[in-house]
Structures are given as structure tokens and as C-alpha cells.
Amino acid sequence: MAFYHIKYRLFAILWLFLSALSTVGLANTTTLNVGCFNIRFKTSADQGELSWNNRKSYVARTIIDFKYDIVGVNEMNAGSQQEDMKSLLPEYSFVEWGGNSSTVPNQGTINAVLFRTDKFDLLEEGHYFLCTDPSKSLLSWDNSSGNKRFTVWAKLKIKETGDIFYYFITHLDHQGSDARNEGTRVNMEKVRSISGHYPAIICGDHNSSAIRYPFYDLCSAYMADSRKVSETPFPWPKDGTLCKWDPEKKDGTRLDYVWVKGMKVHTYNHINETFGRSVTPSDHFPVIVNVSLEPFVASHTRYVDINAADGGDGSKSAPFRNIQEAVDATCNGDTIYVAQGYYTVTESEQFKGRDATLNIPHSLDIFGGYDSAFKEVTGRTVLSGDVNGDDEIADGVWTGNEENAYHVVTVQKYCALMLCNFEIVGGNANGNTTTGAGIASLGSRLILDNVIIRNNQATGQGAGIYAAGQLLCTDCRFIRNISSANGGAYFTAYAGVELWWRHAMTDCYFSENEAVQGSAGYHSGYSWAYLGHNTYVDNKATYGGTVSLNGTAYASKTTLVNNTFVNNRVEAIGGVINEMKGGSAIYANLNVASTISIVNNTIVGNHASCYKNGTPTIDFYGAAVHIYNGTPFIFNNVIAGNRSTSAHTGDVYNAGQLATTGYNIFSSADNINITPAETDILGTSVDSSILLLGNMLESNIVEGDIIPVLALNGGPVETVKVKKRFFGSNAINVLPASQLEEKLLKGDVDNTIELRNKLIFDQRGVERLTDGTSSIGAYEYGREGTGITETASVANPVKTYQNGSILYLSTSMTLQDVKIFSMTGSTVILLGEVTTGETPVNVSRLYPGVYILSWKGGTSRFIKR
Known about the structure:
mainly beta, Deoxyribonuclease I, Chain A, Immunoglobulin-like, 13-stranded parallel β-sheet, 68 strands, 37% strand, disordered N terminus, Pectin_lyas_fold, Por secretion system C-terminal sorting domain-containing protein
């Protein structure tokens, strides 16, 4: 026992010496010892030296002897354990909350920020929950049933200097993979919105290793891993923090982290002091970090206007003329506003010639399309890789792009970019780099809103977008992006590990994109994919899939809901493995346990062909929907009028697990290879079904093929109008309310990463009927009983404008169930009922960016500035 005591007391002395040494030269800077400590909950299962009564004093001594100024504590039970900690640590103030209530403090297991009362003033405190509604104590996603996860925060002022910073203590779930990924997302959104540009720390037991990319890479996009950036290297060969009471178990899993922003990290260490005992005070090593605050900078916004005078400083009154100049003048997490206009990529010291690109070296939000006064969005900002301005496309032949930039935009590793109101055009990745001609996103996350990606070419993957991290697109258009490999419009990469990203494409339009596989989009390994309310038209693949879903190593979940696929083509060349080719609309080659939920889509008039020496190959099974592997759930779709040179199928081919279907329209029994349900509607042949579809849909029939007519029928993208509610003698408005439930559909139809809700809207955003007369397909026919017919256009009843920290909602009607969501789907403000007139909403806690205002029956977007 004496050996342990001497050994670890020496470690404590060494730690304090290194901390003091690291502050030499920082005479005018206050350094702080901060960190986190999972003290393990009090339980009768822990006996002997492990019992709380026998270790509580050593937990407190760890905090005192190692001179923590602030420490975040996990797993402190309300009641006696909480009282013991306060009794043993009288010099510390506690900011605390429990997980079992959003309104009553200290119910259940507590997270707490402990700070030296003599050193800090508490300015503000709060908490939020890691769930679909962070204001409520809920179990969301696949969170373990016994633990409601949450984060506690404190706004502190250093008494000596007056410097202000924020401290967050969190605890992610220990079982649910989605819960950890989404909990990380909520944390990063909340840290950014609550702390603004003040220095901040978030720490605690994240129950995640660094190879959980949706955790580690997303945190790294906005904050720094203190272990990684410490000026003094971490002295241990391994960095495990889960020690299981063993002081020498340094090779365990690293679960506990201290993330910082706006701070310098001088030292980083784990504490394995036993105080002469045979075990550590807890089953986790505490983490202790010595930091100092960087100077606070209030202004983190830059402005760009190509028509401004030279020599601007990036302010609103004197904007930069060049977007890269603005980027170079920003810090991580800053915001740039760009006036409407035509911009080209520019050379820099690092990126010359065709390597010229808009280089994003740290996380940014960039909003384009503004007027010259930067008061409102009046259009889009064009950013082009066509430096010479000589690109031409005539009869499908592209000329003049030989000198174009390889990448119009490049997002570097560990960076996140939100890009809004832009047009990205003219990238040509055909040289020493071959991927991501429009946007090469090598970083953690790419969020696009109201962005056009057009006229980009690549000899490799992803002509429009190559995304190594998460890809989230809303209200975007992808036009004429051509890849010689996979992913014409976009390609999501996969690093071969299980703990990967989720992706979402919502309200997007894809046209004239080309690739070998995934002419519109190619998804490699992922956890969840949501493709909802999109339109795909005139895209061409030479192997398979307008949308190609891939990843056989691990199980995933995919939902395709309220999409329109028309006039897309697979034009394959006969050779080996012809049976794997197909999917003129959807192609899937996934793990057998992966689910593919295809719900309320309109998939009509698509073509799949495979020829060898001018003759159709007999082993080609290409259909509009081609499931090579995976478990399909196919409900409420119009999948008809699709042609194929296959002698086997044209609408649906399933070589995966048994398909579950219901309430679909198919051309005929011989145009599918699945067993239809009793509720499925089948025509007698493809030819006769095309005639029936011609009567049902706004369309033309040309040389025996149906050509659906796309138009703006309401909503952000073109759709195919249902002009009559019958497919022959069969009514299509027959869906019972139960047929819209996610649990039955096995699909996440609202992109919440849960299967608890129901399908509310059609592709246009029109509310679906719940009286048993909702329509099959993406377009809801009729609005009987609501005063709105299928031919009526619905004006947006809500207008918004912002004045300072107040967002004003002006509405001509009373709105129910009003909420504000972030672009990643998190509820950030609950308003409930909003009456007519003007309603002020305090949005000071929201980070600058795009948000979705939702109410029963509609949605709109606004930019929080």
C-alpha cells in the first residue's frame, strides 16, 4: 500500500509541476485546471473498497489534491451521494440537474459542474436533454431504456480578470449507437447556440471511441480535442479512461473527453491516483487539463460583394470582393454573407492553376444571394470553376472546360460547411484529382440549403459532390453533373468501419445527371439514409441506379418517401454479372439486415436496358426498383409503366430478403417478381397500365411510352399531378390512417431517426387525409372537407423578419403546433399555438443559420442572422 501511495503522490506532484511549468511566460494570463470525472453512481452491487462509503473521500481528494478549478461530474445519484459530494467539497459550488425531469431539479442521476466559489461568479446556468425535443426529458432514438441523457451548463466569469466562458458537462448513452450520434449533434448545436463566440468547454463521458466518426469528427469540426492539441504531449502510451478500478489499466477504452474552443491547452492528463489503496476511486480515470482563455473577439461575421470597392476590411460597410479573402479572415465557426453576383475561384499560394478552389480550412456558415445592403436574400450567388468563362454545352458535347478548376469548393478534414443560396458550377476533376468537381467535402459535415449544383464533371466519384462525412441537402437542384465513375450528382464515401454517418436529401431536384452507378446519388456505407420529397427526372446510369444504395458490411436503415422518379434510364452493356445491373429508379445492394422502406413514391416511365451486340441479354433483371440485397418494405407507391429489356421484370425486381408490400400500384403481375399483397393494385400488362396511368396522371403517351408532365403544383420542386383518382376502376385514394404509421411502414418518414410518428404530408407539403381517403403515391389527390381542392394553390400564411434577437412571425390565421427546427432536424423552439397578427420570438439562443418554421399544415424557412 505504501508503494502505491508514494508512487501516485509523486505523479500528483509531477502533474502540478508540469502545469506550473507550462504557464511560464503567461504571467498576464489566468490558467485553469479543468476536466471531467465519472465518479460512478452509488450502488449496493459495489462492495468492499469499491463501495461508495469506502471511496467517497478519495473521489473528493482527487478533486482537491489535483487542484481542479472546475470539474464536470457524471453519475452522481440524487440524494445521499449528492449530499456527500457537497459535504466533502465545501469550497465548490454545484450547477446540477437530474435526468428524470425537465422541470423538477435533481431527479435521478445528476450531471454537475463543480467550480471554485472563490474564483468564479456564476452568471447563468441551464440544461437540455439529448433527445428529439431537447427541452423535455425523453427517451429518443435507440437510447437505453433506463437512462435519459442530458447536458448541464454554466456561464462563468473569472473574478480576477472578468473573462467569461461556458462550461458544459454531458453524458452520452452507453448502448444506443444512434443515440450517441444524435446526442453529439444536439450537443454541438447547443454549444454553438448557447455560448456563441465565447470560449467554451464540453466534457464528460461520451461513451464513444475516436473511430465513431459521427461523434469524434463532428466534435472536431467545431471544437478541439484537448488531448490532441495539448502543448505538452500526453505521457501515457495509451489513452484509455475506462479503467475498471485498475490504476494500471491504461489501454482501456477512451470514453471521457474534454473539448475546448477559444482556449489554449497547456497540459492534458489522466489521473490514476489510488491514495494507497489497491483500486482507483472510480471505474473511470478523471481527466485533467490545464488551459488558458484566448482573447474574446465579439465580431465573427464577414461580408463579400464582388461589386464593392477594393481594399475592404470585410465589414458590412466595406465588404471584401473575394470570398476566399473573407474565409481567410475568419475563425472556426464564423459566418460569411455574400452578395448576389458571379464569382470565380481564385488562385492562392497553396492552390494554383487548376488547383484553385474556394478552400474551407475550418468550419464556416456561408450565406449567399444577398442584396448589396445585406438586408435580404434576392437570389443566389454563383461560384464558378470556369475561370476563362468559355464553357459551352451543345448537343450534349461539353467544350471549353479543359482549364476549369478541379474543385470549385474544397472542405478540409475535420471541417463543417453550411452553404446557402449558392450556385456551384463548372468544376472539372479530370487530372491529378478526380472526385468532387463541384464540392470536394473531405470534412465532417456538409449542409446545403437552396443550392444549385450544375455542369460539373469528374473522372472519379461524385461529379457534383464528393462527401467524406455527413451530407444534408434541402431544397437543392442537381443538374448535368457527369461522373465517369459513381455518383453523378453526389457520392457519399465510406471508410470501412461500422460507426458511420447518416445522410438526408429533402425537397431536391435531380435532372440530366450521369454516372456508372447512382446517376443522381451514390450512397456507400451509412447508418441511416433519408430521401424524401425529391424529384428525379432524365438521369442516366450505365450500370444501375438513379439512386444507388450500397454497403453490405453492416446493417443500415433507408427511407425513400414522397419522391417522384420519371423518365430515368439505365443503359447497361452486356457482360459479366448482368443480374446485378438495373434500378432505373432505385438500386440497393445492402446488408441482409438492412431495411429499405419505399413509401408513397411515384415511380413511372423509367427505362432499363442491357444489350450485347445489339441483343438484349437474357440474364438481365433490371427493373425500376432493383433490390439485389437487403430487406425491402414497399408501401403505398405507384410503381408502374416502367419498361425494361429484361424478360423477367420492369417495375420491381427483388433478389434480397422477402419483400413486404401493401397498397401499391404495379403494371402487372409479370412486371414484378415479388408476391403482391391483397391490397396491391395490378394492371393486366405494361401497355394497358400505361393507358390507365395516362388517364390518372398529367402526362403524354409517346410511341407507347408514358411521359409524365412535371410542374410546380405547390411545394419547392416539380411534381406529377394526379388529375383523376382512378387507376382503371380502382380508386387510389384508399389509404387508411393506419397505413401512414411509421411502425407499419418500417420507415422514418419524417427524418427524426425514430419509428414513432406517421406520414403527415405529401411531396408538396400538402397535409394527407386521415379519414381513410389518403392517396397512393407522392401526390395527395383532393382535399375534400378542408376547403382546398387539388387545383388550388396554397399561399404561405406566415411571413418572418428579424430585428436584433427577435424574430417576428406575421400570420393571417391561427397556427397550431408551431415549432422551429434546425436543419438537422432538432427541435430548438416550441411555440404551440400562434394567433393572428405579429408574434415576437426570442431567437438569441439560436446560432446563425437556416431554420425551419413548422406548423400543422405547412413549413417555411428563415435565416437567423
